[in-house]
Each structure stands twice: as structure tokens, then as C-alpha cells.
Design a protein that fits this description.
Chain lengths: ~450, ~270
């Protein structure tokens, strides 16, 4: 009986369901209208979330850009002081030989000091004089020497010359040292500020474009320190990295993707490559230190070692990007080539590789950009040294842009603050350039099928 | 009992001096057997159509005939496939040369993303079939002519092949296969991605190519098999059920399964 009853119930239920199916849906019912409203609201909310995410990202970018540029742009300009220099023959070339070797050895600092003393005759006493001489940078004498060597007829004449100022004087002129603060709280005393005001009133203080920043190596004196040494070091390091990691990475990717049998060994290799991409870069630095310096005794602080170390770090990136690019080539192209009787190597070199190249290049450039910005592993292999000379090759001691930034950020002088930001701008400029190149190459070589 | 009659039937289709033969061909994808004891002869300068429901192994069998299955991992092949009485799975056979002798046209048109000219010239170039630019030009022109494409593309040879229509692309793929002068052309559902007009053109072309080449075509359309082929082989669940003259297969099939398939009762 119960069976019968439940059967009847089922039938009744079935009838209701089928009955519902045949009733036309009332699309204008309040319930469905509410649903539509809810859906619109959900879509609006989602759009707002997305927009706010972008807004936050843009805001972060603007804040970063503003803080770097506002701090750093002044480093592209340098304060110069105009002095009346008497090119004293007695000091430059007492015997009138005209020999560049003798002129080159002359005491040009003395000329500048004479000029300063003449300008401010009231200054006396050792420490006061030293303060006075600090108005002009120690590098100014090299400028004078260059000038005289280029044009020896200057000897014996008096000329108004723009001389590069010392860093404190430069900071005062740029407004980073305020004359209104208490004398004890600033690097320049009232007397020095007074000299500055005198010079300004004579129109002898001027900001000029700071070419030295782009042509010099590092220096203890902020006004003489430049980015070029680090840029050249970065260049050599990246060249070594590229020469090693690009061919090795691409060949490894081709082998793994196109030729390797699918077995346990290749799986282990693949997993390890993916893991290597996630290894902290300092570990590669330690590896480089041990293998290249301690075992192979390669030169310390040299771009060749930095390049070798960074190549290890970049390889997984290039392999992974190249494999993705190779995998994206449609299999129909391989089949077409194989079906025509192309050998597997011909199939890869004639068809797969050219089609995968935009992706491979993009991955490589992004890997290179990563290497350009890498600091930690280079600290381990001694590229953090203070190096004044511009490196002449991959075996010379050098430093790189991010390490230079790190070094300057660590320096106590106020003037290095703006140098740090300016160096960051230069580094970011290179990075934007490289990424732009990646986009350009991808657009140029991209083929549609 | 059914097994006995079936094997008796699949052993039957011996023709005099076939261009290609398959003997007791078994194929495994890993542990899955996809082909069971296939025995089939391909007659020279005829079109042989392979028909059967999806997943019956006809495309797999086709790919055995130029060893395209070699490129797939985990494929094991037992049995014998011969071309002019030589086993193509023999170690002494160079698979690259074999694929030049047995051309292939695929389901989806797959021109290289290069110019029309370079697509056709690719095969002769890699096999070193030509000595001069003029010879190559001639091969390209004749191949396009044979594929019935020359009239449409002769003014745009340097243009990218991907700019052609689907039907033109497929005929370009046929021209590309023809350019290396293969003896056999395998076609894996060459018209399945084409509209009826393009299909008609390709079918016409197949009929013309028959005078010079041995053609094996896999098709889903029984009408197409009836239109273009002289011999038809019916595959079902990895087994060759029946093979014979196309007229006979379509008008008077011997096997119940063939009858069922061609009358549309299953498939």
C-alpha cells in the first residue's frame, strides 16, 4: 500500500514539474526584475573593483615617479662659480718651455686658491681658508689643466672661468641647505653663506647641465661622481650574460620541447628548471662566489664573473619563455613540414624557431632587464667595490648600475641623495628602453596564421 | 564464429601488384589498441577511400602509411606496411625520404606563414630537387597548375599564403605536396573544413590527380567517397570490415555492419 502511495505521490510531483515546464515564464514578474537589477548591480560593482585596482596601481606609479624625479632631477644640473683666474706663468710653466708634460704637472689648485683669496681678501687663518677653498671642487683644477693644455696661449692671461663648485656649496645653491636654519644644524657656517651671497650678488653663481654625471666614474666627491662607469660595467655584464644564456637557453628549450623523450628524467629536468626560476638570486651569487672565484679563480669584481652568475639566474627565465613560445607554434605547421619530408631539425630551424622567435626574444629581453636590475648576487662576487675608472673590458674591475645606486644610497653626503635618485632614473630609462625594444620586436616579427 | 568469417574477409582483398600493402597491422596508443590486424592493398593510380564512424582508426591507419605516427609518443606498431614491396618500417628506410615519396594533405589547411611561392618551393628546396631558380619556378608553376590554383594566384605569388581563402589554402597544400613528386598522396579528410564549392573543386582536383598519383583519402562523407574513389575500405572499431570496388561497397555490401553504416543506421 505504502509503495502504491509513494508511487502516486511521485506521479503527482512529476505532473507538477511537467506542468511548470509548460507554463510560459513571466519575464516581467517582480522576482525576475529583481534578478536583473541584482545582476546589473553585480556588474557595476565588478567594474568599480577593476577600476579602483587600476587607479591604485597608477597612483603607486605616480608617487614612485614623483618621488624619484623630484629628488633626482636636480642631479642633472650642477652649480658653477665664476672666478677670475690669472694663468700665472710662474706657476704653470716657470721656464716657458711650453712642454705639455710640465704644464700637466703644474699646480692648478694654486691658481684657483689665488683667485679665491683675491676675491675675498679679508679671509685669514687656516680653517677659514680651507672653508673658502671648499667653494670650488677639487675637480676644477683638472678642468683648468685641460683648458691650458688645449690652449697654451692662455698662460699669462687673466680670464673669467666657470669652475665646478664643491658639493656643500652646490646643495646650498639648490636649496637643500637652508640659510635660515640654526648655524650648528647645517654644513655651512654663516661666513660661508655670506660668501655665497656675495658671489650670487655678483652674478658669479650659475647652474649648468651636469655632463660629468653621464661621463664620469664613481668618486668620493659627489660633484665629480658619475654614472658612466657603472653603465659600462652593466653593459659588459649583460653582454656576457646574453652571450651565455641566450644560446644555451634557446637550445635547451628546443631540445626539451621538440626532441626530448617524455620520461622520468626529462620530467625531473623540467621541474628543476621551474624551481630554479624561483631560487632567490643571492643563492646564485653564493654559487658564483664559490665556483667562479674560489674554484676557478676568475678575477674578482669583474663583469665576466657577474655575467656568468647572472646567466645562471637568467637561464630558467629564457628557457621557460622559449618553451612557451615554441609550444605556441601550432602543431599543424610541424605536421606540414614533416609530411613534406623535412627532417625534425629542418622542421625546427625552418618553421618552429622563426615562428617562436618573437616570444623567445621577448622572454630574453625581459630576462636581461631582470639581470640589469639585479644587485644581490653581484654583491657576493665583489662587484660592490668602489671603482673610479671606467672599465675597459669584461675582465676589469667594475660595478653595475643597481650596485652603484646601492653604494650612493649608503653615502653620508647630502649630495648623493640626488645622485641616487638620478641613477635610478638612468636605470629605469634603460629598463624602459629594453622593454620597449621587446614590444617592438614582438610586433615586428609577429606572424599571423 | 563471427571472428573467423571476419578474418577470412579481411585477408581477402589481394589485388595484383598493389602500390602499397598493409599486412596484419596492429597499432597501440600505450595500452590501447587502435588497429586490429588490418590487411589492405592500395592500387596504383586509383583513389582509395577509407570510411567509417569517428574513432574507427581510419586516420590512424592513414598516418601509418607515411610513418607520421612515429612523431607521437607511446605508439607501438606491429605488422608490415610496404611501398613497392619494401617494408617502410624497415630500419634501412630513411623516414624523411619516405615522407617525400608519400605526400600528405591534412584535415585543416596548414600553409606555412610564408609566401605562396615559398610554400610550394619548400619541398623541392629541402630535398635538393632543383639546380636553378628557373627549374624551381617551373616546378612551382606546374604544381600550382596541377592543383588548379595557378589561375587564381599567379599574380600574387609573393603574397602570404595565409591570405588565401580556406579552399585555396587546401589546394595550395595539395600543390605543396605535389611539388616533391610523391608517388602516393595521403589525404586526411581534406574537405572537412571547406564549404561545398571549395569541396567540389578539391574533389575535381583529386579526380584529375588520379592519372598521375596513387591517392588514399579518409573521409566522413560517404557521398564524397562514392564520388571520388574507385575502391572503398570500411573501418569499424579499429578493424577493417570490408574493402572492395566502391560501386560494390555502396550497392551491395557483404557485411551487415557496412550495410548499417552506409544506410545511416549507425555511425
Amino acid at each position: 500500500m505504502t509503495d502504491m502511495a509513494s508511487l502516486m505521490e511521485d506521479r503527482a510531483a512529476a505532473k507538477v514539474i511537467s506542468g511548470n515546464l509548460h507554463t510560459p515564464v513571466d519575464w516581467d514578474s517582480p522576482k525576475l526584475a529583481r534578478n536583473i537589477k541584482k545582476r546589473y548591480a553585480a556588474e557595476r560593482r565588478f567594474k568599480i573593483y577593476g577600476l579602483s585596482a587600476i587607479a591604485i596601481a597608477l597612483l603607486a606609479l605616480v608617487v614612485l615617479g614623483y618621488s624619484i624625479i623630484s629628488k633626482g632631477y636636480s642631479a642633472f644640473f650642477q652649480t658653477y662659480v665664476q672666478m677670475e683666474i690669472f694663468f700665472d706663468p710662474a706657476k704653470i710653466d716657470p721656464d716657458g718651455t711650453g712642454d705639455p708634460a710640465i704644464i700637466g704637472r703644474a699646480n692648478f689648485d694654486g691658481l684657483i686658491r689665488d683667485a679665491l683669496s683675491k676675491q675675498f681678501p679679508e679671509v685669514s687663518g687656516r680653517s677659514e681658508r680651507r672653508d673658502l677653498y671648499d667653494i670650488v671642487s677639487g675637480g676644477a683644477s683638472y678642468d683648468l689643466r685641460e683648458r691650458v693644455l688645449e690652449n697654451p696661449s692662455l698662460i699669462g692671461q687673466t680670464r673669467k672661468v666657470w669652475l665646478i663648485s664643491g658639493d656643500d656649496f652646490d646643495m646650498l645653491n639648490k636649496g637643500y641647505i637652508s640659510a635660515n636654519t640654526d648655524e650648528g644644524d647645517r654644513r655651512l657656517n654663516d661666513q660661508e653663506v655670506g660668501w655665497y651671497n656675495t658671489l650670487v650678488s655678483q652674478g658669479s653663481v650659475e647652474k649648468q647641465f651636469h655632463t660629468r654625471f653621464f661621463t664620469n666614474g664613481d668618486s668620493r666627491e659627489p660633484e665629480l661622481a658619475g654614472i658612466w662607469g657603472a653603465a659600462v660595467g652593466s653593459f659588459y655584464t649583460l653582454v656576457v650574460t646574453l652571450i651565455l644564456s641566450f644560446p644555451i637557453g634557446v637550445l635547451a628549450a628546443i631540445y626539451l620541447e621538440e626532441f626530448a623523450p617524455r620520461n622520468r628524467f626529462t620530467t625531473i629536468v623540467e621541474v628543476n628548471i621551474n624551481n630554479l626560476a624561483a631560487v632567490p638570486s643571492i643563492v646564485f651569487g653564493l654559487l658564483g662566489l664559490e665556483v667562479y672565484l674560489n674554484v676557478m679563480h676568475l678575477p674578482r669584481s669583474a663583469p665576466v664573473v657577474g655575467g656568468l652568475t647572472l646567466a645562471l639566474m637568467t637561464l630558467p627565465t629564457i628557457i621557460i619563455a622559449s618553451r612557451a613560445a615554441i609550444k605556441a607554434v601550432p602543431p599543424s605547421i610541424r605536421q606540414a613540414a614533416l609530411g613534406l619530408g623535412a627532417s625534425p631539425v629542418q622542421t625546427v630551424t625552418h618553421h618552429v624557431l622563426p615562428l617562436a622567435m618573437p616570444g623567445i626574444l621577448t622572454g630574453t629581453i625581459i630576462g636581461m632587464a631582470q639581470a640589469l636590475g639585479e644587485t644581490a648576487p653581484l654583491l657576493m662576487i665583489g662587484m660592490v667595490a668602489f671603482i673610479v675608472d671606467i672599465p675597459g673590458g669584461a675582465l676589469d674591475p667594475a660595478t653595475v648600475l643597481p650596485v652603484q645606486i646601492y653604494l650612493w644610497a649608503d653615502s653620508p653626503e647630502r649630495a648623493f641623495v640626488e645622485k641616487t635618485s638620478a641613477a635610478i632614473m638612468v636605470l629605469l630609462g634603460f629598463l624602459i628602453l629594453m622593454n620597449g625594444l621587446a614590444v617592438y620586436l614582438r610586433k615586428k616579427f609577429e606572424r599571423k596564421w | 564464429m563471427a571472428v573467423v568469417t571476419q578474418s577470412a574477409m579481411t585477408a581477402e582483398p589481394s589485388v595484383t601488384s598493389p602500390k602499397m600493402t598493409a599486412r596484419d597491422l596492429n597499432l597501440f596508443y600505450g595500452d590501447n589498441q587502435a588497429l586490429f590486424d588490418v590487411n589492405l592493398d592500395i592500387v596504383e593510380r586509383q583513389v582509395t577511400a577509407l570510411i567509417g564512424p569517428s574513432g574507427c582508426g581510419k586516420s590512424t591507419f592513414l598516418r601509418c602509411m607515411n610513418r607520421m605516427n612515429d612523431t607521437i609518443d607511446g605508439v607501438t606498431i606491429k605488422g608490415k606496411v610496404t611501398l613497392d614491396d619494401r617494408d617502410i618500417y624497415d630500419k634501412a628506410i630513411d623516414v624523411v625520404q619516405l615522407r617525400a615519396r608519400i605526400g600528405m594533405v591534412f584535415q585543416k589547411p596548414n600553409p606555412f606563414p610564408k609566401s605562396i611561392y615559398d610554400n610550394v618551393a619548400y619541398g623541392p628546396r629541402i630535398h635538393g630537387l632543383v639546380n636553378s631558380r628557373d627549374e624551381l619556378d617551373e616546378i612551382v608553376m606546374t604544381s600550382l597548375e596541377r592543383a588548379g590554383l595557378l589561375k587564381e594566384v599567379k599574380d600574387r605569388l609573393p603574397e602570404p599564403a595565409t591570405g588565401l581563402s580556406g579552399g585555396q589554402q587546401q589546394r595550395l597544400c595539395i600543390a605543396r605536396a605535389v611539388a616533391v613528386s610523391p608517388e602516393v598522396i595521403l589525404m586526411d579528410e581534406p574537405c572537412s573544413a571547406l564549404d561545398p564549392i571549395a569541396t567540389a573543386k578539391v574533389e575535381e582536383l583529386i579526380d584529375e590527380l588520379r592519372s598521375n598519383y596513387t591517392i588514399v583519402i579518409v573521409t566522413h562523407s560517404m557521398q564524397q567517397a562514392a564520388r571520388v574513389s574507385q575502391r572503398t575500405a570500411f573501418f569499424h572499431l579499429g578493424k577493417l570490415v570490408e574493402v572492395g570496388e566502391t560501386d560494390q561497397i555502396f550497392t551491395n555490401p557483404k557485411d551487415e555492419r557496412t550495410k548499417g553504416y552506409i544506410t545511416g543506421r549507425f555511425g
